[in-house]
Every structure is written in C-alpha cells, then in structure tokens.
Amino acid sequence: MDVANFTPKQLNTLRRIFHAMNPFMVFMLKIGLGWTMNIWPAVSGRIMVIKHRGRKSGKEYLTPVNYAVVDGDVYCTAGFGTISDWYKNIMANPEVEI
C-alpha cells in the first residue's frame, strides 16, 4: 500500500485501524499461531513483536511491527515513521525485547 498520497486524516484513520488490530496480533503470537500472520509475506509482510517501555508511563507494551531480512540482517520498519509511539518509546529507552 502506497501511503505517499494519503491525506493526514486518512493516515490517522489507518493508524487507528492498525492500533486496534495490535491486541489480536499479539494474542495470535502468544497462543502459538503467529506463524499464520507470516504465511504470505509478499502480501502482508513479516510481523514480529517488540516489547518496549512507554517513554512517559514506564508501562510495558507489546507492539507488532513489520520487518525484513536483508543479507542476514533484520530490519524493523516504522510504517508511519517517527510519529509511531513505539518508535518514540524505543528512542527514549532503547532497551527492547524482540
């Protein structure tokens, strides 16, 4: 999905949709069905979960994110860039668990 031409309102709506889906994705990984989300990476990408702490609350969060493996290295992508809360959290506290 090319979001380059989306309006800010459309991007915000899309972020809300992804945010609402996060608990389901984390649940699937916890019960051992996370592999189903990575079954067709050409369409849905690859998903992993990052455990991080809130920069303000200190609360622990589990956030599903997209990643890619390139030449044996794992790259995590921030689909909405630096406005992503999880990104801001790991910039404030880079101690994360994958």
Tell me about the largest β-sheet: 3 strands, antiparallel
Strand fraction equals 15-25%
Strands of the widest sheet, in order across it, are 1-2-3
Q: Tally of extended strands?
A: 3
- Roughly how much helix do the residues carry, as a percent range? 25-40%
* Element-level helix/strand string: HHEEEH
Indicate the radius of gyration in whole angstroms: 14 Å
Shape: globular
Overall average pLDDT: 86
Uncertain ranges? none
Structural class: alpha+beta
Report on this model:
The chain has 98 residues and is α+β, with helices and mostly antiparallel strands. The protein is built from three helices and three strands. A three-stranded antiparallel beta sheet has the order 1-2-3. The longest helix has 23 residues. The model has no long low-confidence stretch (mean pLDDT 86).
